Known about the structure:
Blueprint: H1 9-16, E1 31-36, H2 52-61, E2 66-67, E3 77-78, E4 81-86, E5 92-97, H3 111-124, H4 130-133, H5 142-145, E6 146-150, E7 153-157, H6 164-170, H7 181-184, E8 208-214, E9 218-223, E10 236-241, H8 245-254, E11 259-261, H9 265-274, E12 277-292, H10 302-309, H11 314-318, E13 326-328, H12 350-359, E14 366-372, H13 378-391, E15 394-400, H14 404-408, E16 414-418, H15 426-433, H16 449-452, H17 459-470, H18 474-489, E17 495-508, E18 511-512, E19 528-529
Parallel strand pairs: 1-10, 1-11, 14-15, 14-16
Antiparallel strand pairs: 2-3, 4-5, 5-7, 6-7, 8-9, 9-10, 11-17, 12-16, 12-17, 13-17, 18-19
Helix pairs in contact: 8-9, 10-12, 17-18
Amino acid sequence: MLRRHFLTLASAVAIATAAPYTVTAATPSDQLVIAVNMSSMRGLDPHELNQFESAEVVANLYERLIVLPADKINEPQPGLAESWTVSEDGKTFTFKIRSGVTFHSGNALTAKDVEWSLRRLVKLGLAPSTDLRQWGFSADNVDSLIRATDDQTLVLETPEVWNADLILLSLASFSTSILDSTFLADKAKNDDMGREFLQTADAGSGPYSLRTWRANELLIAEAYADYWQGEPAMRRVILRHLPESSAQRLQIEAGDMDVATRLSSTDLSALQAGGNVQIQKTPGFGFYYLALNQKDEILSNPKVREAFRYLIDYDGLSSTVMKYYGIKQQTIIPGGLAGASTENPYKLDIEKAKQLLAEAGYADGFSKIYFATPVTPEYEVAQSLQANATRAGIKLDLQGGDHIGKFRERAFEIFSARSGERLPDPHAVLASYATNANNADDAKLTGLLAWRSAWDVPKEIQGMVLAAAHETDKAKRNDLYAKINRAYLESSPALITSFQRTDAKAVRNEVKGYTGHSTWLTRWDTVTKGD
């Protein structure tokens, strides 16, 4: 039996809040300590959040119907649903819910909890709800289309026929996590279905339960002894807020941290050379992107949009700040998926950018406010663009901070960040970047990057994206995606991609089983420690 070291909560907090430059003993053999930047972690409600670090936490507090193994990302496996069938017409999915699963409260998990959770996701209508709403579910129809017929059976009907894999992949996303409906029944405030409560609490059945969370400081999760797949080896997982790359590097070198995230390429290189740490580079289904608000008269000019493509130092960034964090890519379908292309026709060309600006009527340049997240490597990429834009006559007032809310409200001029879609299928990226069914402000399609950018995507592109999602013939689907890729590249899009996202983490050699996941579902219950 695994030997355990039972620390008190006070001891755990002492480890997690030690001064950044203090050398302490190695982390306990039954605890996993992760350094993260919590600045963008705003809550832990799985039906609300849409952010990398929070998603990893939720992936371990909650369970989902379907599982996507990290090494078989395209092969849906049984999770809370031990089996499923799809009707001949492709519209009805029937799931047999696993018996013997309990929530952290001790309540038994049944199909009624699945029904309530999926309905809640749709009815809240927040950004993650896109994972179900895009298939035609709405607050008006979800009660009739998603229903528990008994304690172990969940029936899900889609209003239209879609490629069945898209539905199954959606049900593996952290957004479709299953919540304890009985436990949450008295936690609602003003009909929020427990939303306020779940910002700092959990109602899940995952391998870990939330013990403590102090924003921008500390999160502690405890192993759930009655977890249906067995109690995890790591009795406790501690996330500590360490926004500085240098501090993370020192602590993981000293053995005070087991995993470090958001490190600079310089620090990652140094750690890799040191020999005590492995660098994981996990490809993601998203991009580093630049969003130009199309409600702005200047930025909506196609030649201005095209000019910005020549202000990105693709090659220079590839060999420096993006060495561990991205793969140069200017097309819209992530590498490795159907229809992907290796074509990258753009390069840094200040004179070409000036020419396009002059043709657009802005030979003397212009000034804009530029919002960027102040984390590695997003901010370094933003600083590079700012410098190049200055050379072309464009003054960018770069403002770091948590501006995602303003982006979602279309209250910005220029914004850059990185996306991370949750389906290992081209449709996931295309639905966000290349569809916008209603460009009106009151449409509130906040889950779509195209809507946030106020980009009225060409109808030809949107039509092909929709057709590909319905297509069940693999060859025809692949052909459509290749055409979409070309059309997007030639459209001077308002959402400019530069690098396909790669998530880099430093993991000490003695940590086994901590495996980065392309859809952010990195698990802690697979972790052990040893030589």
